[in-house]
What we know:
The complex is a heterotrimer of chains A (243), B (331) and C (291). By secondary structure, chain A is an alpha/beta fold.
Amino acid sequence: MSLLQVDHLSKRFGGVVAVDDCTLSIPAGGITGLIGPNGSGKTTIFNLITGFIAKDEGQITFKSQRLDGLGPDSVYERGIGRTFQLARIFPRLTALENLLVPIRRKGLRALFSRAGWSHERSKAMEMLEFLEIAQVADALGGSLSYGQRKLLELGAVMMAEPELVLLDEPAGGVNPALLERIADRLRTLNERGTSFLIVEHNMSFVMNLCSEVIVVHRGRQIASGKPDAVRSDPAVLDAYLGA
Amino acid sequence: MYDRRVLMLLGLVAVLAVALLLPAIAPDSATTNIAVFTVMYVGLATAWNIMGGYTGYISLGHAGFFGFGSYALGLLLAKLGVAGGYEPFLFVPVAGVLTAVLAAVVGWFALRTRAATFVIVTIAFMFMLQLLAENLTSLTGGGAGLAFPNPPWRGGFFNIPFYYAMLALALVGLAASWWIRRSKFGLGLLAIRDDEDKALAVGVPAGAFKLTAFVISAALVGMIGGVYGYYVTFIYPQFVVDPLIGISMVLMVFLGGLGTLWGPVLGALILEPAQLWLAYNYGVSRLYLVLYSAVFLLVILFMPRGIIPSASELIARRRARAPATRAGATP
Amino acid sequence: MILVLEAAVLGVLTGGVYALMASGLTLIFGVMRIINVGHGALVVLGAYLSFVLWRNLNIDPFVSLVVTMPVMFVLGVILQVVFIRPLKADREALSVLVTYALALGIEGLLGFFFTSNYVQITAWYDTASFPIGNFRITYVYIYGFLLCLAILGAIFLMLYRTTFGGAIRATMLNRTAAQLVGIDVDRVSAVAFGIGMATAAAGGVVFGITNTFNPGSHYDLISRLLTIIVLGGLGSLRGAIIAALIMLVIEDITAVLISPVWADFVFFVVLVVVLLVRPQGLFGLRVRERL
Lengths: 243, 331, 291
């Protein structure tokens, strides 16, 4: 059974059709890659799923519940987290505080969530240690290196234990050594029960990490399956070679 | 580490003791008059900071809430026929609740906009309230003003009850500000200030949070406005919905340190006595405004981050010299 | 009915003046992304400059623009360079405060020199009128309207027909990109601020003939001008002009049908309605102000 089901999703910007009657199915428990040439609508799909932009048509179902019309905060509350293409963290909060921001409660109930403050703090420290950035716990987010920001953003989104996390180019702008660490940590987090959907241009990263790959082109799915099968799919080759 | 905390606690107790005993230390009414206004601005700046400092949404219209609270209390007292004395203070929280209701409505549409537009909407709101106070003559008395019951106290004692009322509200404001700063709610507000879309992406219900901060901030300002109205006993639209009151609290927060707990307090303690002194000496010729604007410009141009953040950065840098350089300090 | 029609015509004519003042304000926002809260005070300053030239040297207020517009332009460039340009971090918030402080400073100086008594500039054309159908229109409204039309036309010509205007429009669209293609954004900003001030001077003259004013008049002005540019959509010249005309017509009709004391109030009512229906204003692009 699929964790996230996207049916006949469409989005137009003026005359440009960014997502065109797109249907996707993301299985529970896996790491799924979402690939496609530049401008194929991957980030738009992310923005539609997470409620950052409103869809024109179609429906999105998560754990058998519709996500229609929910804002980004409500989508997170339902259990879908995301990261951004250029790692976004809170520059004037410390690294530790960055991890304490995420909330999975509704509206005003979130106001009074103070219970387990120290418990949460130690959980945040564990996360920093897990990502090997505990040494910068008290440094301001704005003073961190890009790689540290990437790790911090990942750690923050994991804090409220979402069931599914959408990662927008986790390998972008990251050096090879760190790339290894990120891949390794993602595998561990996946084993602990979180599913991932990854948009990524680094093919070896995708092929190594993902259990399944979905290829989109011009706003719709053109192929899906095991990485090896997808790699040799002629439709995929056409899309990438610009047929 | 520990003796620093003890030191801070001792300092706090000392400041609080001085604040509580001030009327006994300096009982002449000239001093207590200055004290009433200074503590009033401590409260106003602290309240403004809860919205403007924590969320980064700059409201230039808080004078509207100040005036509304003032009129709300004045009208309540008039309609209920409350006599002068201590009783009017009991109605201050009611004025606070009324202001909170107004703020919830205003915030509901003002917060549909971000940054630049929000500033403009708050300014427009303030002038709208001023206009209403002027035009609803049958209710507010319009330009003729609205009278409060006469406080019965005479001579040197006159200022004392007002001083403690203002002090109590300032302490409530500080307690709220402190609690918010330490709570998950406050962290959410700071996250909104840094990057609102990112905050949404990690589940911060930005709309509800901003509105709550706005309402808390406005309700405090409204209550202070109520006490102010009773203190001056006669209010006019232009005097309580005064843009200068609105901008003064903002300036104090910026001087002391935006988004810090003690910045607004420090800013008010420095600026309000200076402001009163300027008004006293240069109030008749309009040079008062020129000097005020000069102070204003100096603060913004030379200390845009405020005293407390600048000072604590200096201390941090001193301390950082010892344990070598921090890992990965470059972005 | 005749009264309403008369009010509408008057609304269009005074709307032209507000269109000019608001276009300066929205231009400044568009180029620098700052809200010039001091714009009202600058209009009042312009009015006082012409007032002095008229009172002391007997110079016709419209003629005095030959002097006051360049003077205000230079003053604008200086203010931008000294007070706005140094702001680096947190520009948006700090610039609001700086321009607010400038407004207070100007108000204080004007109060020092002219006291807070109300004054008005007078000329033969502010009482002389000519008939249109069943009612009469004072010449000053026509002259003011034509003046504003001429200046707005000049601004549009400059923006769309000159290289420098292109640089201004590029900066309005995307500051960073404009910088990347070699546009001196600082210079563009200073000039835009100067142009905004020159429009304030021109608007100030017409304002000063058609209204009595004192140094505190800027509050009333700025709250109207800000409302107009939000309605038109921040940074949209076309929007500011149309919003100014619409607002002033509505205001004048309200004054006739209900009461002049409620005329100002409709400004805010319309603002609230627009924010509920269309937060980006009539012509504003949906600016993601933070993203």
